[in-house]
């Protein structure tokens, strides 16, 4: 057997993580903002700074960061439960999402003591929101070709260039950017470094970009000779590529890679319960649950590896690819199902939610690495090329 | 321990040549006796009755191995029968998850796996459990090339009394068996296809170097990964008979993967893939048969969907977690 698939063994959640679920549910019962269902369907792109701060007060932003920095010091299993409950409820988690999932752990792993002391408590308090500046107008999948450049100067570094599609840049306090510090784009992965950039500094302009559903969740960010102190560099100069890749297994294996349409799924099920379901609709609903069960088990298997300190990067690419295919299939199929009976009324909230998800579903397999790129990684993991 | 011993028997005796011979009506006794005489049919029989006293968890690797070797005898069915019925007769025993009475009182069990070979069938007659002697039945081959599947008709007078009311367990267990053998056969198909794509050269390079081919293999691997973990769910409990919902999800998910896995394998093998000579067909023919045996994904997804609809106020996340949680630790 191809050993790539050996990582996927059925794993249950440990008791402490299941026990944690009750706390999360109780929190949500009290604090989940009362918004229409098609707004809840925005899921992890829904921005609500107040909600994120309430979550932070509960200790659940920076969930896996050590208590010394204000984190909850919980493990990957607990994070799985928190994310699962937040997404299932359609909670607006975008404000703290990136800091919690990526920036915090990155600073913990590669940052200096001073950086940890400064940023981590702020992240855990919900007072520092982050964004990730990797993509540029001419560097998408081919990330190693980034051209934004930081050049050494007596005070530290001077940064010029542009980032694009940066989720939440217009709301965020800080960006962690991947930029070139030596060589040229032809040098590829070498010569790239990561910087923490305070977005309020002079020389930075942020322009929100409106998407096809009318939302502005990402931005274009321009850096015009921005002065960065010595302490802005995270980790080692020239190690940016390695550092970016270290977190990929966390980014791609979680429930957010198959829960993006779950609010719609639940809404549709409610409508079927109310109005009755045909055998076909029941089987379609069942097929979603069947797939969801298996995806969740695939993801949990990787969570167990993450909890052990492993980094199953290719396996995570596999979960993300099959997971996003599933979350894209849900609005496609439900759209067909609700309009299979043109002479019957359609629930308006259901209609809006389906329409919204069909509009944005293409992003599921773009953000975090495109389908084509992931499939190339999986193929290599299978021993091809 | 058992798995390795059984794999050894399969590697020695369940060769592609023998699989073909049995499919053509050749003698399966040698293979069957090897499994029977080593006591491997008694894996679920309690230790007090000289069995191995295993539970489902230990069976999964064995049943997937049966799929990986395209085992042409009803060993998985006979093993399962020991959990459904304490005193099983000696001989090849198969499972029939559905059956009905005809107008003339005779009993019809449609498309029974191994129906052409089996000595006995454990039959689910609308919830009642019957043990029937296949030699008393008229066996009507389905007429599908290479298939050992047959519809069986028992004359009214040959149908004895029900021996239990756990007939539905036959269907559920058999569906779980198919899920495991599908997962096993898919592992084999994936391995064969990967190997072929690294070896076959066109345009001066291995076809596995073409991105279009790589992406298809990645999709196949995803489907196999999902199928394996689905099958594991049905066999994850320390029980002797799979539970309804885990088995339903396992059978539905593995069946859903069959068309794609099989289609990709055949697409990548090109013309040679559909030849009788290449072993691929031993597996893809079975995958298609197992997908529609004991209910396709349409049936089992219907069971899953109905179970969800029957729980008002339950969200999808809760439901899928509950399926996993019903497993005793
Ligand atoms: C909602 C959303 C949020 C995002 N948030 C962020 C963010 O916060 N920070 C950030 O840095 N970026 C972000 N991105 C950008 C995202 O990472 C990029 O969209 C992604 O990496 C693809 O780059 P691209 O859009 O330039 O497409 P391209 O790389 O130009 O790709 C276009 C098409 O070509 C295909 N392609 C490219 N190369 C190959 C190849 N070698 N083989 C086969 N096919 C190939 C791609 O798969 C795709 O289908 C976000 C994107 C979206 C949609």
Automatic annotation (TrEMBL), chain A:
Residues 16-127 form the Acyl-CoA dehydrogenase/oxidase N-terminal domain. Keywords: Oxidoreductase. One of its GO terms (molecular function) is acyl-CoA dehydrogenase activity. Residues 131-226 form the Acyl-CoA oxidase/dehydrogenase middle domain. SUPFAM superfamilies: Acyl-CoA dehydrogenase NM domain-like (SSF56645). Pfam families: Acyl-CoA_dh_M (PF02770), Acyl-CoA_dh_N (PF02771). One of its GO terms (cellular component) is plasma membrane. Coiled coil: none annotated. InterPro entries: Acyl-CoA_DH_CS (IPR006089), Acyl-CoA_Oxase/DH_mid-dom (IPR006091), Acyl-CoA_Oxase/DH_mid-dom_sf (IPR046373), AcylCoA_DH/ox_N (IPR013786), AcylCoA_DH/ox_N_sf (IPR037069), AcylCoA_DH/oxidase_NM_dom_sf (IPR009100), Mycobact_Acyl-CoA_DH (IPR052161). This is Acyl-CoA dehydrogenase. The lineage of its organism: Bacteria, Pseudomonadati, Pseudomonadota, Gammaproteobacteria, Pseudomonadales.
From TrEMBL, chain B:
It comes from the Bacteria. The keyword Cell membrane does not apply. Signal peptide: none annotated. Pfam families: Acyl-CoA_dh_1. Coiled coil: none annotated. Residues 177-306 form the Acyl-CoA dehydrogenase/oxidase C-terminal domain. One of its GO terms (molecular function) is acyl-CoA dehydrogenase activity. Keywords: FAD, Flavoprotein, Oxidoreductase. The keyword Oxidoreductase applies. Belongs to the acyl-CoA dehydrogenase family. This is Acyl-CoA dehydrogenase. It comes from Pseudomonas vancouverensis.
